[in-house]
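Quick start: what a row looks like.
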Amino acid sequence: MSLTFITFTAALLVYANFILMLHRSNAAGIMLIFAVAFSVGLFQFAGVPAIFPKLVLESLIGIFFFRVWFFKEIKGDNDQLFGFGFVIALLLISVGSFMGNSPPFWGFIYFLRIVFIPFLFFYTLLNIHLSDKEIERINKFLVFLFMLQIPAAILKFFTIGPAEDYIGTIGIESGSLSVFMPLFAISFLVIQYFNTRHSKYIWLMLGFLFIAIVGIKRAIFIYFPFLLILAHFLYAKLMNQEKFFNPKSIKNLFLIIGLSIVVFYAAVRIIPSLNPDDKVGGRFDPYFAWNYTQNYIIKEDIENPEHANRLNAPLMTYQMMKSQHMSRFLIGLGAGRLVHSRFVPESRKLLLNKYGLGYGARTGILWFFIQTGLLGATFFVLFYFALLKKIYTIAKKNLAIKDKLMTIGFTVVTLSLLLDFFTYSNAFIQNGALILPYFYIAVIILKKNNSLVIKG
């Protein structure tokens, strides 16, 4: 009872503080939203169920949304409802999928919270004015929240040890965050390094990579080199370098190779499953690590679907959905069918027990495909493709160097997000500490491109 009382008291204080902040500054309200999003893990560590800080976060976004859209004059441009048609189409399909399949009601509500509340945040930000000074304050605070994850990972290493759980201050569960959260930060850091050659960016990249390694995420030494190569290509192209393989580019390639080797070595030594000794600090045996990774990724065991990996799961999911009625193939088996919630406990084993699918079917695209069908998954992806196209078009313009680097970094982040969505997990879309900063940066780029920022 005392814990519940403390939690609700804290929530009320946050609400009161948020309303006061909004009267004074939109920037202060945005920073509070980010602070709550990055503190869910701290609440969980203190024994508070994750649902409490998540509800507080979602409610704050709701307050922000209604304040802007119903109590203030809307000022903006053609981008104030960017991609809105895709979002509305996804919402209608989600409702139709729920009504046609009757998944658990609370699962449906949780699905709406996960998928659409971040969009409320996005469209709210598109319709407010932020001065240059306010943006600078928010940016510094956001950098601080990301940087805080590095000492949190170091503390975890020396107290808990390598483990998938306890992802910085962000959360206790969803170990996939240990892959994409570092890649999110590294996407901007590597672009800054390519431009400035400051060694501090290399050290920061190593710090974020340590988060993934201490989270025993084997995928990092596959996705990380890919991200670096992608960043190098986009930087060379968008910075209008005349020759792709010029002296500067060759240095970048040496950096990619060097960091990839460091990551691979550290991962093999620290992640027990990647070394023959099966312990932290085990022997470095690249052949053992490669064989383990190969078996983990490409093994096929159709008779034991719980072993479905991320390569064979798409085909298995397609076959399962194709065996359904055409309407289910198009709009899914019910929005909210697969959400993980204490109110829908059976959802954790539903992929295996009911649909004959396993762990590999938890990628974002299959998560959407099963619940909202081909149409729902398509409209969700089309929104991000449209945003990627818009941002890439902006990146090709003659921008100030600071804006140019941020736009290139965001392009890398978006492509990494889509790679994660199609091949790895759905963690990004379910965690406010990643999707909310993502939408914030997108809005800043869109606003600057359309001269919507008030100079101050």
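That is the whole record. Residues 451-456 have pLDDT under 50 and may be disordered. Residues 108 and 336 are 4 Å apart (CA to CA).
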